[in-house]
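As agreed, record passed on underneath.
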Amino acid sequence: MSARPRRIVMTIARRRLVAMQLALPLLAACTATLLVPGAGRCQTPVDAHATRRTDESDETERWVPALSLDVGLLAQEVNASARTGDVIGPPLPSPGLRPRTALGHTASSAIVQSPVADTDLLQSPVIGTDLEVMTPRFVDTLGRPRGFVHVGLALALPQEHQVARVRAPGEYALPPGSYIPPVDFDETQIVGQGSAVLTMRDRLLVTAGAGLAFTADWGERRIRIKPSIEYLRSRVSVQGFTQRAVDLNDGALNGTLASFRRIILTQNASLDLHGLGPGIEVEADARSAGPLMLTVYANMNAYAWLNDTSVQFQSQNGYGETAMYSFDTQKWTLRAAAGLRFRWVGY
């Protein structure tokens, strides 16, 4: 055999030898997979490297920032009361001459006959966003505990609640219907008289919290259970409103609103509330995309108000006629929410 064909044969032999050396580890791995019960699929060297890389980059070993968006409900029990003083302004009481005044009583009786006190559940739908930072795990046992802190803002959808009411305070008007003059109306027929205490939660809420996160793998799903201490700042606006019609034409026909003196006693107040209490959240990984992990979660928090939860206020007109109002909230309030969180777990 000439020198040239001999070199070609030797080159082919060397290449086959190299191919066999590369294939032997893979063949051994596949053989072990077939012989050992419960073994996984055959792994190429690239697959094995990817698996090691995943194990080494477990997100519980690193700092993880996250941004969340949720919807929920904030609820608390509130109490309110309203009472009024006497009619003092014109017309002054004339005994025996005013049988049809003060909602069936004499002109010296209360502006609104009955005081009122009532309780209501103040419920506010809430949309919130939150920034969270989670620490690496402290230990590799006991649920791999990690610390976390978060701060957030939320918007409470405005809903006015009429906590306490007597009669039907509202639009001041003659009674509905068609009338043929001459018409004589009594004080009691004028629409919109009465007292009420109205309340509404202001839109902006401030939240914060800190706690521990315990991680568990449930099948292929990773979940976290997160007990915490939570903070809430909320502001509640309150309005007291009283309206009354007083007959100015005793013994004459009362066919228009001009025949009555209108008493309006209204005043506003507010409470800035700061609460602290326990919270619990359950979070589950849903889908990953590159360095991001989308999770779903649900939580419930209870807050005990740390500052004064009651306010008293009053309104007085130029004649010295007054209405007194009070408002207070129960010591605890609850918030429940569910949402989505985007966690930066890295590559």
Remarks:
- The helical segments are 3-35, 45-56.
- The longest helix spans residues 3-35.
